């Protein structure tokens, strides 16, 4: 039994997210960081600095207009910090001392600052917890590569575990299904009874070439949708998985969310859009879904447009993260919370992200 007052072992939980600009002047350098990442812009190393800066410059106007709608900045950092505080509060009674740190990939605080803070706190263990339920080489894989370099630089050499993904985790599915159910009931109350309602599970898209090269993201998105639909238990539920936020001219995975709005207009069904790969509100939910796609739905004549809120600090969702943290630590799983082939596609062996990560490092 622990003696009262005895120091508890310290475990740092590092929350990975993408990050977003904190002021209008940060939009361009934020976009440069993003398009200079070899996990995002997969071109030979000698072209990347030139091409990455060019794409960032061209994207700055459109992105700045989106952030202007949000007051000139992304709300992602505040929301991620709140998720960390809520998680810490839920872990407060444990025998070890947990503290959350935020490591954003493309804007501050980034991995270097987070690794220095974790070292200064005196962490004896680290648990890397991506705020991406599905593993992609472009998100979690990229953050892992950045973290490894930052931890080395900070001289942080402690046992480190990674929760690679929780796409079908029962707690995540239950929390998400509860949010869907609440939004469904509100939408049904507003709609005339004869208008059918379809759920569009909308995930961030990816270039098709990245999926063909072995990225497990799309497979994991499909698993998340299946888990949430199963949890909803609604007979004959009309639903579809689709992909938003295309930003490059290459072919991206589909169907696109825009195409699904057209189909809904054609079928005369209202839509309930559920973000399935974002667990926080940010420009792609608050602007793309709430402003752009809503306007597009109205223009097309979709008979109703509703949205499920992102999880943010929803108690059910943070409880699911808490349970994942405790299971990952207790089980001593070094790399993957689902190391068994049950959750990972056979094509990627026992754990897709270990191979995917090697691929990202090889690109760097
Ligand atoms: C080739 C480009 C991109 C890929 C691939 C990509 C994958 C990807 N992104 C997220 C989640 C987020 N993306 C965000 C912003 C963002 N993403 C891209 C490009 C790609 N993303 C750009 C250019 C931007 C900047 C905004 C814009 O210009 O539209 C954000 C943060 C936004 C914020 O408001 O803070 C998130 C979160 C996922 C999950 C994903 C693939 C699985
Ligand atoms: Fe993105
Ligand atoms: Fe895995």
From TrEMBL:
The keyword Iron applies. It catalyses: heme b + 2 H(+) = protoporphyrin IX + Fe(2+); Fe-coproporphyrin III + 2 H(+) = coproporphyrin III + Fe(2+). SUPFAM superfamilies: Chelatase. This is Ferrochelatase. Its main location: cytoplasm. InterPro entries: Ferrochelatase, Ferrochelatase_AS, Ferrochelatase_C, Ferrochelatase_N. It comes from Paracraurococcus ruber. It comes from the Bacteria. Keywords: Cytoplasm, Heme biosynthesis, Iron, Lyase, Metal-binding, Porphyrin biosynthesis. Catalyzes the ferrous insertion into protoporphyrin IX. Pathway: Porphyrin-containing compound metabolism; protoheme biosynthesis; protoheme from protoporphyrin-IX: step 1/1. Gene3D superfamilies: 3.40.50.1400. Its EC number is 4.98.1.1. The keyword Transport does not apply.
């Amino acid at each position: 039994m622990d003696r009262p007052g005895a120091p508890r072992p310290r475990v740092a939980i590092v929350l990975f997210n993408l990050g977003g600009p904190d002021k209008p002047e940060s939009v361009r350098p934020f976009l440069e960081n993003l398009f200079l990442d070899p996990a995002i812009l997969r071109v030979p190393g000698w072209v990347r600095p030139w091409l990455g800066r060019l794409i960032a410059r061209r994207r700055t106007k459109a992105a700045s207009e989106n952030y202007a709608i949000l007051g000139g900045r992304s709300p992602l950092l505040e929301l991620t910090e709140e998720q960390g505080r809520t998680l810490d509060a839920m872990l407060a009674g444990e025998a070890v001392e947990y503290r959350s740190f935020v490591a954003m990939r493309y804007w501050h605080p980034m991995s270097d600052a987070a690794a220095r803070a974790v070292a200064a706190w005196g962490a004896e263990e680290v648990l890397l917890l991506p705020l991406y339920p599905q593993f992609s080489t472009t998100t979690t894989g990229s953050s892992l590569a950045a973290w490894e370099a930052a931890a080395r630089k900070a001289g942080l050499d402690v046992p480190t575990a990674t929760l690679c993904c929780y796409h079908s985790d029962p707690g995540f599915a239950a929390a998400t299904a509860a949010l869907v159910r609440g939004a469904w009931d509100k939408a049904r109350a507003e709609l005339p009874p004869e208008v059918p309602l379809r759920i569009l599970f909308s995930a961030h898209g990816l270039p098709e070439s990245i999926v063909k090269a072995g990225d497990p993201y799309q497979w994991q998105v499909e698993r998340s949708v299946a888990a949430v639909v199963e949890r909803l238990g609604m007979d004959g539920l009309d639903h579809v998985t689709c992909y938003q936020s295309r930003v490059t001219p290459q072919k991206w995975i589909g169907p696109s969310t825009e195409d699904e709005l057209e189909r809904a207009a054609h079928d005369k069904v209202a839509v309930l859009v559920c973000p399935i790969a974002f667990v926080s509100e940010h420009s792609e939910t608050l602007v793309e879904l709430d402003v752009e796609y809503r306007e597009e739905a109205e223009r097309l004549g979709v008979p109703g447009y509703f949205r499920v809120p992102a999880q943010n600090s929803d108690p059910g969702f943070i409880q699911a993260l808490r349970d994942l943290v405790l299971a990952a630590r207790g089980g001593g799983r070094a790399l993957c919370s689902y190391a068994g082939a049950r959750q990972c596609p056979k094509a990627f062996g026992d754990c897709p992200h270990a191979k995917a990560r090697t691929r990202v490092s090889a690109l760097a």
